[in-house]
Amino acid sequence: MNKIKYISFFVFFLIINLNVYASSIKIIVKVNNEIITNLDIQNEKKYLLFLNPKLDQLTKNQIDEIAKNSLITEIVKKNELKKIYDTNNMGSLLDSIEQRFLKNKNIKNKSDFIKLLKKRDLEYDNIINKLHIEALWNQLIYSKFSKNIRINEENIRKNTLIQFQNEKKKYEYDLSEILFTENVSENFDDTLKKIEKSIINVGFENTANIFSISSTSKNGGLIGWVNELQISENIKKHIIKLKIGQISNPIKISGGYLMIKLNNKKEFKQKVNIENEIKELIAKETNRQLNTYSVIFYKKLKKNTKINEV
């Protein structure tokens, strides 16, 4: 009899808790047949704060909006990828994705990574899945648009050799970026004013999260250390005028406008392999052009996706 009472009480307690839990979950957005709940947004916020801790300087509503848009982007990309790839059979790719991420975050190994995620209340499998989606997306963009890439390798080689032969000191630059385009509903000056006002109010990194269309946006626009031989002349001439902490005026590039922040700089004196530097510069220009195609393709997919705010 006591056992029956105990089971009845347990079932009653479980039902009550399930009802309370269910009532705390709210659907925020429907993306085709998938839903985004308030809990999904909370988890995404933790992930984005892990990538860019300065996000906590924004208001709750601002962070919620960034997290919501991040999840919408992920679902739109994931649905397109499912049409092309077997996402259950990507073992070697997952390993390389993880190693690259650990290196960029200065994390020693997988064990340390998992411990760090637990402290942030983040799940390892969920984070790897997000990195997986981004890697597959980049793979898709390359397969679709690499034939459209136009690079003048002769000019790159010529300019690199001229820079290398120059007797002046050579520098490495720690950079962050905001890449933006003109909004359909407003002109360039209005868009720029919004970005400049946001930088004043919430900082460059958070503004990158809000406005930048570059793949670096989730990391607060961080590019990291780049030596000057790997930077195009068009961009470098703006960077060399900056003092540490300063931000460039918008630089017109194909596909939009670029604002660069100089986080730090240092002289480098090590021997340079010119051929490697030329290859690196070509790779960076290729990635920049691919990013432009990525933005255009994503916007097309999003336009054809049912997105309903609840």
CATH fold assignment of the largest domain: Chitinase A, domain 3
- The biggest beta sheet, please? 4 strands, antiparallel
Classify the beta-strand content into a percent band: 5-15%
Mean pLDDT: 86
Name of the top-level CATH class of the largest domain:
Alpha Beta
Through-space gap between termini: 48 Å
Shape: globular
Order of helices and strands: HEEHHHHHHEHHEHEEHE
Helix proportion range? 55-70%
Provide the number of structural domains. Answer: 2
| Rg (CA only) | 23 Å
How many strand units?
A: 7
Write the CATH architecture name of the largest domain: Roll
Give the helix/strand class. Answer: alpha+beta
The low-pLDDT segments are: none
Number of helical stretches of at least 4 residues = 11
> Going across the major beta sheet, what is the strand order?
4-3-6-5
Keywords:
310 residues, alpha+beta, Triger factor/SurA peptide-binding fold, Chitinase A, domain 3, three-stranded antiparallel sheet, 11 helices
Per-chain topology:
Elements lengths: L1 H23 L2 E5 L2 E4 H14 L8 H23 L8 H14 L5 H10 L4 H22 L7 H13 L5 E10 L7 H15 L1 H8 L10 E6 L5 H7 L11 E3 L2 E12 L6 H30 L3 E3 L1
Antiparallel strand pairs: 1-2, 1-7, 3-4, 3-6, 5-6
Helix pairs in contact: 2-3, 3-6, 4-6, 6-11, 7-11, 8-9
Structure report:
With 310 residues, the protein is an alpha+beta fold. The protein has two domains: 2-147, Orthogonal Bundle (Triger factor/SurA peptide-binding fold); 154-303, Chitinase A, domain 3, CATH 3.10.50.40. Helices cover 58% and strands 14% of the residues. It contains eleven helices and seven strands. The chain has helices at residues 2-24, 38-51, 60-82, 91-104, 110-119, 124-145, 153-165, 188-202, 204-211, 233-239, 274-303, and strands at 27-31, 34-37, 171-180, 222-227, 251-253, 256-267, 307-309. It has a four-stranded antiparallel sheet with strand order 4-3-6-5, sandwiched between helices. A hairpin with a 2-residue loop joins strand 5 and strand 6. The longest helix is centred in the C-terminal third of the chain and has 30 residues, at 274-303. It is globular and about 65 Å long. The mean pLDDT is 86.
